[in-house]
Amino acid sequence: MTRDHVDVAIVGGGPAGCAAGLSLRAHAPELTVALFEATAWESPRVGETLPPLARRLLEHLGVWDAFRGQGRHNIHREIHGTAAAWGAPEPQERPYLFATQGNGWHLDRAAFDALLAAEAERRGVTVLRQTRLRRAERTGTTWRLHPAKAAADAPRTARFLIDATGSAAAFARRCGARFVATDQLTAFARLFQEGESTDPGTLVEAFAGGWWYTAGLPGGLRIAACLTDADLARPMELGDPAGWDRQLAATESIRRRLQGARPTTPVLVRATPSRRLDPVTEGGEGGWLAVGDAASLFDPLSSQGILKGLRSGIFASYAVGDLLAKGDPAGLTRYARSVEGEFESYSRVRARYYAEEQRWPESAFWRRRVGA
Ligand SMILES: Cc1cc2nc3c(=O)[nH]c(=O)nc-3n(C[C@H](O)[C@H](O)[C@H](O)COP(=O)(O)OP(=O)(O)OC[C@H]3O[C@@H](n4cnc5c(N)ncnc54)[C@H](O)[C@@H]3O)c2cc1C
What we know:
- The relative contact order is 0.18.
- The longest helix has 26 residues, at 330-355.
- This protein has helices spanning 15-27, 54-60, 64-72, 109-122, 170-174, 230-236, 241-249, 253-257, 305-326, 330-355, 364-369; strands at 5-11, 33-36, 49-50, 77-79, 82-85, 92-94, 104-106, 126-128, 133-139, 142-147, 157-163, 178-181, 185-193, 202-207, 210-217, 221-229, 262-263, 268-271, 275-278, 281-282, 288-290, 296-297.
- The termini are far apart.
- It is 33% helix and 27% strand.
- It is of the alpha+beta class.
- Bound molecules: flavin-adenine dinucleotide.
């Protein structure tokens, strides 16, 4: 049904935005919700490992059976852990670098995100595909919404805005929020058609300038990425395929896993510093709140980005639901504290993992992390 006005406008249909929509419908079904998504989830997305703990969140969101249905069609690949040459040259098997319990998955991320959006739509969220929200103006207690192109079914106004635009945090930043970052980690990733190795497991390899990982994806694809700080990447020429290949050739285990693999993309550059947004929410009615990567960004080493996105979408729905349906703003403060607390405990675990690698005490990359 077309509505000119909704209670909540969610901007971004990644895991965080979709989880917020799904959970809002369950927690405060009297509220109307629209989700703007710039794409139709048509192209491959980076960020693929879903750790075992995600099962509980997918069950909570009521999408576990639908997810398992995708698994039965081999849309996602089951995996049982990670091997890491971390602290020593030979890769050691680890159940998970940051997690425990059962098997995880290497996702077809576009299919996963599209599934979450379709489930949200089935529960009453108005999902606006290929509808980028260009601008939103706050007038008192109302948001005026301006999509990039006219969309007949797009609402014009909303009572509250959830920024789920990923690492851009586009709307929160326009409202004056700023990032508090602890590093400038950047990923230089490429997708491949699998070669000799069809091992789906994640393989991590540290080197003096940072670390590499590769993982087998569904559909015979493979991802490989080099992670280093933005300033250290320049002399390595990682943004250029020839420079990227030269750095790959200097690895031990990663290059063997990639033997015979054929690149299908140029080098995709993604900034992925550890950082949080300050503040993550503002205002009561007519206010905003950030979820997922917009609220905080974790090192991909943690494989926690999707999990964190789902969790923050759920917590945000409680805060926004209580505000708009019961007039209780206290949940917004609790939400802000939970994002801050989560970031602090993540930072402690991250420091412990980086401290395990002591082979290059003179290198800028490791010096910045070990003992920081
Ligand atoms: C190299 C790399 C490897 C990673 N590996 C992992 C991993 O193994 N496991 C893991 O859990 N995480 C991983 N991550 C992190 C993970 O990808 C993110 O944490 C996760 O995607 C965050 O979800 P999100 O919903 O917050 O944002 P996103 O997934 O970024 O979704 C944001 C959405 O907003 C839409 N959008 C943006 N602006 C607008 C607008 N104006 N209007 C409408 N729509 C808009 C975008 O199209 C997109 O769909 C990795 C990240 C990188 C860079």
